[in-house]
Amino acid sequence: MAAAWTRGRPFGKWQVGEVTYEFKKLDRRHVLGPGTGWDKAFDLLRALAAIHGDDGVRLVVGFVG
């Protein structure tokens, strides 16, 4: 679900000072797919699950900012 401030807004780019912002549609493969670095994390989670079982492995992520 899109964030409230993005609903109804067109995709595109805009400039604020020296910073260029881009608003575009992404799916999970763009963010978590091969080549993003997350593929290695998921490979590790699968390997740990093979040893400890699916219920014995969790990925916990924290965001600061």
Count of strand segments? 2
- Judged by helices, strands and strand pairing, the structural class is alpha+beta
Distance between the termini: 22 Å
Question: Helix and strand succession?
Answer: EEHH
How many domains? 1
CA radius of gyration is 17 Å
Mean pLDDT comes to: 83
* Helix share, percent: 25-40%
The main pleated sheet reads as: 2 strands, antiparallel
Query: How are the strands of the largest sheet arranged?
Result: 1-2
Q: What general form does the structure show?
A: elongated
Beta-strand residue fraction: 15-25%
Q: Low-confidence runs (pLDDT<50, min 5 residues)?
A: none
How many helical stretches?
2
Q: Can you describe what's shown?
A:
- The structure is a single chain.
- 0% of the residues are buried.
- This protein has a two-stranded antiparallel ribbon.
- The chain contains two helices and two strands, in the order E-E-H-H.
- It is elongated, with a radius of gyration of 17 Å.
- The chain has one domain (4-56).
- It is of the alpha+beta class and 65 residues long.
